[in-house]
Specification:
By secondary structure, the chain is mainly α. The protein has two domains: 36 residues, no CATH class; 57 residues. The N and C termini lie far apart (63 Å).
């Protein structure tokens, strides 16, 4: 088999390495960026003691909100959180 034919066959086969998946991730990222994001609210019932601790934390850390706090926690847990979402929206208005 000639090398041109081999390259043709290998070029049409899906990549089995992470390097080949990079282009797929870039494609997905471009698709996500092109479409406007829809935002929704989540509601969770938590103990009042925890809510008070969150309020105290936010008083001490003025650049944070409940939203940024939750998004950072989700990112630390391994969720796909874009860094642009962790910006305090009050500072950009």
């Amino acid at each position: 088999m000639t090398s041109k034919r081999l390259e043709s066959i290998l070029g049409s086969a899906p990549s089995a390495t992470a390097r080949g998946e990079l282009s797929t991730k870039e494609h997905i990222k471009k698709t996500v960026v092109d479409t406007p994001l829809e935002y929704t609210r989540i509601v969770a019932t938590i103990p009042q003691v925890l809510k008070d601790e969150i309020k105290e934390y936010l008083k001490k850390n003025k650049g944070n909100t409940e939203t940024t706090l939750i998004l950072r926690a989700l990112k630390n847990m391994g969720f796909n959180v874009d860094p642009s979402w962790i910006v305090d929206k009050r500072t950009t208005r």
